[in-house]
Structure prediction request, 327 residues.
Amino acid sequence: MKILYGLLGFVLLAGSAFSDFTPGSRTIEEGTITNLYDAFGRDGSLQKDFGFSCILRHRGKTVLFDAGGNADIFKHNIERLKINLKKVDFVVVSHGHFDHLNGIDYVLRVNPKVKIYMPYDVFWGAPVPFDATGPDSSAAAALPTGERYFDGGSTKFTINQSGRFWGAHIEYVKTTREILPGFTLVATNSPYMGYFSGYPNKSFVEGQFEQDEHSQYKYTNLPELSLALNTRKGQVLVTGCSHSGVERIAEAAKNATQDRIELVYGGFHLIPFDKARIEAIAGYLKNDLGVRRVAPAHCTGHLAFGVLRALYGEQYVYAGLGERVRF
Prediction:
């Protein structure tokens, strides 16, 4: 009997000791970012896929940034890491590419009322200003009322879409602004990246990319959001895919916050570039913009991982799938 009680006590004690790790109950520590979705990492229990998501906690708020490209894979990793999505205070979607977006379906199943910030992208639900007047503004007058748009009302209007995530609590963000004390959404637009996987010809001049005037992708202006967190050491900048150029996003964050950048975490989208261009971008980040640490993930690319590690040394932070980075 004593042995039985002893075993029972051990089970109860063990249950108490590990109660924080029951499904959906892992505590997201203040001042940390955890990679939830990526194609590289050391944790074999997590499912790898090309896409991105991370979760962070700052100033008492838990924030989900992006949600990967496959809701089933996202769900698997969330469950393995024991993340409780009901405790997410708000979500930031960096841009409208599938590999950052589709896991939101699972997020909304678990936390249907969570606030979601998305870039002002008409393809994913932002209001669309439209002019249906046509070249002859008097044409409508010759038609019966039932054949006129809006029974003869204004032909300049806004289409308020239901959007990709019908019924969700979404705010579309067009310009950079602080949404809460210490949380700034940095809005940028890619000058050369739209809904395609390739970059056009490009050149690097004084820290900026110049657009090939003959490129079919010119001025596609993919809208993108990054998140800057105000810390004692400086801004922690979280990027999704950096289609706008990681250096342009860092510039925009510095200009908006008037603060130094302590860390850039996330996708740098350097896969398309050769070593010389990557070295120029990395050097510009470190030496000109003063970015103290980097934690590259997702679309940064193998070549860029090596270049950034060599340049930053001990200030290079490994951020693979499942890794927790402190700031």
Notes: The chain has seven helices and 17 strands. Residues 128-160 form one domain.
